[in-house]
Design a protein that fits this description.
This protein is mainly α. The protein is built from 13 helices and two strands; from the N terminus they run H-E-E-H-H-H-H-H-H-H-H-H-H-H-H. Strands 1-2 form a two-stranded antiparallel ribbon. Helix 8 packs antiparallel against helix 9 and helix 9 packs antiparallel against helix 10. The relative contact order is 0.09.
């Protein structure tokens, strides 16, 4: 027996018949115009198709959630996996940033002689005297004078190679400073003795580099008593410490300067000038 709705499809209060599936009819209100391209109409047609319904039912929930997250970036459900990994900072970057923060904090805490009104401002003249003792100009002038006054070939050989090491020190430190271009600490007071253009940069410490290289050179090529050897080591350490206490350099600048000067001595040994080469050079100069 047929349904009464099937016999009178157009009676008052009803709606036009859109279609049937398994004896069931779907109706739309007469107040809404029929739009066959609207999303609601497409969804109704998909729902009325048995094949489409079975395909939608067989679709896995995981797959639907994955498609929704990939297409719903505007809804704030999350970024794709590769974007999330790219946004996470690497362990190396975090470690370097932490070390840099510790370096700046420790350097500021140790800069107790940066100004006269600092906590150790009264020690500033002594620190500046130690600073001058590690400057390049006194070392170059003193080495050249000893080379000129030396009577023995062995003494001239040692002084000439020390002079070569000092010149090499100026060149290498200047190149590294020009490449890195790290500014000096903010609490530094620029009143250094005989500065050059690259001296406005901080990394590495030229004084620490020179102290390490000259200290190792003197211990290796001069016959010194035990107290004098201790004084040489103490002087090199005080030069590096004065750079931080005066606010000239950060801690890492001094540490790298010590390492660079230690390695630079090995380069001087590789380029060592023999007495024969020294006599040839002195003959050409004469």
């Amino acid at each position: 027996m047929h349904s009464p709705k099937a016999k009178n499809p157009g009676r008052s209060g009803g709606s036009p018949v859109l279609g049937s599936s398994n004896g069931r009819y779907e109706f739309l209100s007469l107040t809404k115009p029929l739009n066959r391209t609207s999303p609601s109409h497409l969804l109704q047609r998909q729902g009325s198709d048995p094949t489409t319904a079975r395909l939608r039912a067989s679709e896995s929930p995981t797959r639907r959630r994955g498609s929704g997250s990939s297409t719903g970036s505007g809804s704030g459900q999350g970024l794709p996996e590769e974007d999330g990994i790219r946004l996470n900072p690497s362990f190396i970057c975090v470690a370097l940033s932490s070390l840099l923060a510790i370096d700046l904090w420790l350097s500021k805490q140790l800069g107790v002689c940066a100004c006269e009104d600092s906590s150790w401002g009264s020690v500033r003249p002594l620190m500046k005297l130690i600073e001058i003792s590690g400057h390049g100009i006194p070392w170059l002038a003193g080495t050249a004078y000893c080379l000129y006054k030396s009577d023995s070939v062995a003494g001239q050989e040692v002084m000439l190679n020390l002079l070569m090491g000092l010149l090499l020190d100026l060149i290498l430190v200047g190149i590294v400073k020009a490449v890195v271009r790290r500014r000096r600490p903010a609490h530094n007071r620029m009143d250094m003795f005989a500065t050059f253009s690259v001296d406005r940069y901080s990394f590495p410490s030229g004084h620490a580099n020179r102290a390490a290289m000259c200290g190792r050179f003197l211990l290796a090529h001069l016959v010194l008593a035990a107290p004098l050897r201790v004084l040489v080591l103490l002087w090199a350490g005080l030069v590096g410490l004065s750079r931080v206490m005066l606010g000239r350099h950060n801690v890492t600048d001094v540490i790298f300067g010590f390492w660079m000067g230690y390695c630079q001595y090995n380069l001087v040994e590789m380029l060592w000038l023999s007495p024969q080469t020294l006599q040839g050079l002195l003959g050409q100069l004469a």
